[in-house]
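Request:
You are asked to prepare a plain-text protein record giving the amino acid sequence and the backbone structure tokens, at your earliest convenience.
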Amino acid sequence: MRGRISTGLAGLAISLAVGAAVWPHAYHAGAVLAAQDDPARLADLQLDSALQHDQAAITGNIEAALVAGDADLANSFITLAQDRHIAVSDELKRRVSDAVAEESSAAHVAKRFASGLFTGTADDVASLTGTVAGDLFVFGDVRDAIREGKHLALGEDTDRLVLGLATAGLAVTAATYISAGGATPLRAGLSLVKDARKVGRLGEGLAAWAGRSAREVVDAPALQQAVATGSVFRPSETASAIKAAFRAEKAGGLVRLAKDVGRITEKAGTRGALDSLKIAEGPKDVARAARLAESEGGKTRAILKLLGRGALLLAAGAFNLTTWLFGAMLTLFGVLCSIKSTTERATQAWCNRRRARRLRQAQQAAAVVPGPELAAAPACG
């Protein structure tokens, strides 16, 4: 019986040891699975795991961003380091501050505004402002719609996404004027998605989805007729003709996408929105990125750089995380079984000892009590 009890105790000790090793992974897996619909909480958990083993990643990314001339990204990492209480040298902070000041100088802003206005390409706040200004004056959208519309009319390769976004942009521009700027975030979102497509910074999955959606919002015959007589030198007349080819009832998906991009831009900046569009595989990813940006603000770019798409979705497969939880449950089951077995064996041993003690006591009592023949003998006179 002692051997059986020792076996149960050994099983309990092993189960507890395994449980102690598995518990941290199981706890993290459970927390991640519970946060899979909360991008901010999910990113926070993923950061805990990533920075726990490599806090030097913050400094390394700051240096890399400065070398690449991306002061905004470097400053995002500084903000993240402060939030995580990770030490960054004063000299590195000064270099980032100087780079941000240079990027915010009047000469740089004017140059980037002009670039956005005339080329229609945005990669920071100033250039996006110029791009939106050009689109608000319908010049940018008319230019893009005529270019792609002529490709469509001639049977050439056509970027239907840019074409759809340009026609949608013309309709939204009119709404922006009517609402006294109320639709400006949507207008900016459409411009940014269009620019991301032009410079190849739109995720493959998102580009495929947006292309399918854009096909539905354009009435091809009406657009071809508008393009045939349109010109960038008559923007107002051409814009009105192109708007007639826009199917507003089919544009719900693109409008929601543009609104989400506008939300990201407001909280994380133009480059934060472009980073989100690059890793997104569909409109749901962009919506999750918008929720992340609203929660994390200036830290968003650093989080996206460190975690990639893992900032929006489970970095590890749900199956792997579930395996840790299943392992923890098996370990708990082993602990309970070991406790049950040890308790039963200890109880059985105690009962056996008690039964044996009673048996010995009964035998001793029987030996002391006189037999019946002695009890019936006459007393001595």
